[in-house]
């Protein structure tokens, strides 16, 4: 059986795969990292977004075989080892940017990539456009946009904490 060797959240894994195995299947079924969700399976909803070498990708349409040597980060790998949340996770919590939470892992991973790519800052419109590939059935997006704007200020050193950004 073919194998793929990749790093997931800083840990190396060599995993048996089939040619058709998807990255999301490898993560959820082989490595039991079930924080990455599957909503549509057809690259529409963004629930399955993870980072490959720092770039957000939809893992439901990425073949595991293409990830040889890659460094993958999932929602489980975003917080620090001591449990300190990433500013984006903290902002989602502080701004009540989730309800059922189904979209949240993918939304957070997409948002981190979006903010990292815009150190100059993002307007509300740019945040909304940047999240076009992530669907949320619950929140109406308003608090998600506010959370991302707050996290962006912290990630780019314009505010010290999410709490400060919330004031
Ligand atoms: S499950 Fe991948 S985009 Fe919906
Ligand atoms: S919080 Fe329910 S789908 Fe987004």
UniProtKB/TrEMBL annotation:
SUPFAM superfamilies: 2Fe-2S ferredoxin-like (SSF54292), CO dehydrogenase ISP C-domain like (SSF47741). Transmembrane segments: none annotated. It comes from the Bacteria. Keywords: 2Fe-2S, Iron, Iron-sulfur, Metal-binding, Oxidoreductase. Pfam families: Fer2, Fer2_2. Residues 2-78 form the 2Fe-2S ferredoxin-type domain. It comes from Roseococcus pinisoli. This is (2Fe-2S)-binding protein.
